[in-house]
C-alpha cells in the first residue's frame, strides 16, 4: 500500500490507528526538520506553541507538566515495590501528553521501555532505571529553568 501511495506522488504515508507522537513527527518533518531529526528544541519553544506568549499561562502550564512528571516518578517507585506495572501504565498514559508537548521523544521511548520491562518481569534493570532517572531529571531541570526565567522577567 505504501508503495502505491508514494508512487502516486504523495510525500508521506501513515496508517491507522496511529500514535499521536508519530503524527507529530511527520508534521515536524515538514515544519521543523531539525526537531524531526531529533535535534533538541528548547522547552521555551515547545511551550510557546501552546501558550502564545502568555507568561501567566506558561507558568501555570509548567506547574502542571512538572506535576505530571513527578507523578510518573512516584508511579514507577510504587510499581517496582508492588511488582506490578499497572500504576506506572496509568501514569505513563497521562504523562505521554506532557512529553509529547515538550517534544521529549527520548524520554517517551524510555517510558515505553520501562512499561515493557514491567510487563515482562515486573522489575526494572539498573541501567534502565538510571536512564529513566537521568532523562526525568534533565526534563525537570529544563522546566525549572524556564520557570525561573519567567519569574525574572
Structure description:
The chain is mainly α and 153 residues long. The radius of gyration is 18 Å and the shape is flat.
Number of distinct helices: 8
Largest sheet: none
SSE ordering: HHHHHHHH
The proportion of residues in beta strands is under 5%
Terminal Cα separation, in Å?
A: 52 Å
Query: Which secondary-structure class do the elements indicate?
Result: mainly alpha
The rounded Rg comes to 18 Å
* Number of beta-strand segments: 0
Instruction: Provide the residue-averaged pLDDT.
Output: 85
Shape: flat
Low-confidence stretches: 36-40
Helical residues, percent:
over 70%
Essential attributes:
single chain; 153 residues; mainly alpha; 8 helices; flat
Summarize the structure.
This protein is mainly α and 153 residues long.
Amino acid at each position: 500500500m505504501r508503495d502505491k501511495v508514494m508512487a502516486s506522488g504523495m510525500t508521506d504515508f501513515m496508517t491507522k490507528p496511529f500514535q499521536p507522537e508519530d503524527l507529530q513527527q511527520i508534521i515536524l518533518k515538514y515544519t521543523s526538520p531539525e526537531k524531526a531529526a531529533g535535534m533538541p528544541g528548547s522547552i521555551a519553544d515547545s511551550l510557546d506553541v501552546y501558550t502564545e506568549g502568555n507568561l501567566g499561562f506558561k507558568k501555570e502550564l509548567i506547574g502542571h507538566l512538572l506535576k505530571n512528571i513527578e507523578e510518573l516518578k512516584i508511579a514507577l517507585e510504587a510499581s517496582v515495590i508492588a511488582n506490578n506495572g499497572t500504576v506506572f501504565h496509568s501514569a505513563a498514559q497521562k504523562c505521554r501528553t506532557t512529553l509529547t508537548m515538550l517534544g521529549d521523544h527520548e524520554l517517551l521511548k524510555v517510558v515505553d521501555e520501562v512499561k515493557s520491562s514491567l510487563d515482562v518481569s515486573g522489575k526494572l534493570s539498573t541501567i534502565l532505571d538510571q536512564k529513566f532517572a537521568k532523562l526525568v531529571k534533565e526534563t525537570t531541570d529544563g522546566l525549572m529553568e524556564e520557570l525561573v526565567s519567567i519569574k525574572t522577567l
